[in-house]
Amino acid sequence: MTGPRTAALAGWLAALALVLAACGSSSSPSHAPAAAPSGAASAAGARDADLSGVTLRVGQTGWAQFKAALQVAGLDHTPYRIKWAVFPGGDKQLQALQAGALDVAQTSDIPPVFAAAATTPKWRVVAVQRAATLQQNVVAAKGSGITGIAGLKGKKVGYVQATTAQFFLYKLLVQNGLTWNDIHAVPLTPQDGVAALSSGSIDALATYGNSVVTTVRQGATVIGSGQDILSGNFPWEASTDVVADPARSAALVDLLARVNKAYVFIRDGHEEELAKIDAQDTDQPQSQALEQIRANEQQIPTAVRPGGAAQIAKEQDVADTFSRLGVLPGKVDVASYWSDALSARLTGALGTS
């Protein structure tokens, strides 16, 4: 397996290209700031500062989910510009963030651990998004005859390196009396994993999101889930330059408050509107997208929150797990790349105490 340090360094140029080629649609600033997410949900910095010259380059994984949520809630007309970019994984977002090709990333709690192990981070975790852990599965190829995790012994198993997929695959193996060395682990991107499973190049795949939907549609069988293994914490990372910049950090706080407000709106009877966009972007039936959205919001309602000791401790467990697995070069101090620099403003913007 390629070491995480080598993989991160090698991926930066590719990540730069991804930013340019990804969905780079933007939200243009309105001539006057749009109505902010009601009352306390508006960032004070966004009200007080002229943000018309600010551009935030924001990454997402899989499909443009946050952009769609803001559109559904009518919160997409921001007093600053947003350039959205979609990536195949959170690790690629952090490579782009480290290289200066992205301002803001949103990942699971696994990619930051690997990125911090690879180099000194030029970014900080500034908030956490609580979100569902559904659609994080191990799927067996059609006709493979594999019916459970124990059946993976000696098999070729694809996984998305440095993501939730690698973490829950490892945990599921241990739960079933196996070790990482009991399988032939093959690191793949989600897209390449789907293709490899379909062609028979691998016997099973640990993946997430749209890749699960696609493989199941092609006849794969779900044999394991990360639902009860993963924390449900999905960090928002920002470059240290953004954190230190008054105008850009104010725009980021406002954006996070808008995302939080958007999901409150969606849960208040507007799931079908989001499902319509989701179905178009992910090429699945709208009824299926709606079912998944409702299941996600029922399991863990999507919400943005400032980070804290509890979230840091859970991510430290992730780092320690990968250290035991031998894929991290020693211990990673998770707290070193978390920052509370935006917490007070975000708390005010969210209307929380």
From TrEMBL:
<protein>
    <submittedName>
        <fullName>ABC transporter substrate-binding protein</fullName>
    </submittedName>
</protein>
<keyword id="KW-0732">Signal</keyword>
<dbReference type="InterPro" id="IPR015168">
    <property type="entry name" value="SsuA/THI5"/>
</dbReference>
<feature type="domain" description="SsuA/THI5-like">
    <location>
        <begin position="91"/>
        <end position="219"/>
    </location>
</feature>
<dbReference type="Pfam" id="PF09084">
    <property type="entry name" value="NMT1"/>
</dbReference>
<feature type="signal peptide">
    <location>
        <begin position="1"/>
        <end position="21"/>
    </location>
</feature>
